[in-house]
Amino acid sequence: MSRLAFKTQSPLNATLTASKRWVSSLGIWGFSAGAGALLLLSVTPLVRREVLVKVPVLGNYYEDKTPASDKPF
């Protein structure tokens, strides 16, 4: 029969081991939540002007090209 040998872990090592398991999952969920929030808030003028226009590749798509005479306010 084989014997089981348990090693004691320091609290720091146990914390690092547990955090390594969760970091990738939390990163994926956080990125997805941020992308979803930007998708839902992309119609808001403040988000469009302050965030989405400043994205290097997509900035031209979100610029407001409506002439001032056609804007109601």
Automatic annotation (TrEMBL):
<dbReference type="GO" id="GO:0006122">
    <property type="term" value="P:mitochondrial electron transport, ubiquinol to cytochrome c"/>
</dbReference>
<dbReference type="Pfam" id="PF09796">
    <property type="entry name" value="QCR10"/>
</dbReference>
<dbReference type="GO" id="GO:0005739">
    <property type="term" value="C:mitochondrion"/>
</dbReference>
<dbReference type="InterPro" id="IPR019182">
    <property type="entry name" value="Cytochrome_b-c1_su10_fun"/>
</dbReference>
<keyword id="KW-0472">Membrane</keyword>
<keyword id="KW-1133">Transmembrane helix</keyword>
<feature type="transmembrane region" description="Helical">
    <location>
        <begin position="26"/>
        <end position="47"/>
    </location>
</feature>
<keyword id="KW-0812">Transmembrane</keyword>
<protein>
    <submittedName>
        <fullName>Uncharacterized protein</fullName>
    </submittedName>
</protein>
